What we know:
Blueprint: E1 5-7, H1 8-15, H2 19-27, E2 33-36, E3 40-44, H3 45-54, H4 68-98
Antiparallel strand pairs: 1-3, 2-3
Amino acid sequence: MSDQFISVREAAQTLGTSERKIMDLVEGGELQAYRIAGQFLRLKKSEVVNIRQSGTIAQESTQFPYAPSERFKDFLYFNDFYIASIVIIVALVALIFYV
């Protein structure tokens, strides 16, 4: 399995538990967490799946959906360079051809 990184919320959804429980696992050393860009805490998907398959984590009934606004914020955060580049290129092309 690839070393794909997932958020704490996605890990909680995968394990069927709360985000607080995931943070407790990280603090207890049962899950290795990584900071990306010094802000976002990410977990290796393969480690989360291994914990799910081992059955050591009891599932909880509380589920928090990954809201569309949060998806949009993540999209903007991780793609801001590309969005800014496209805007600059379009502005320069417009400047070249229409001025």
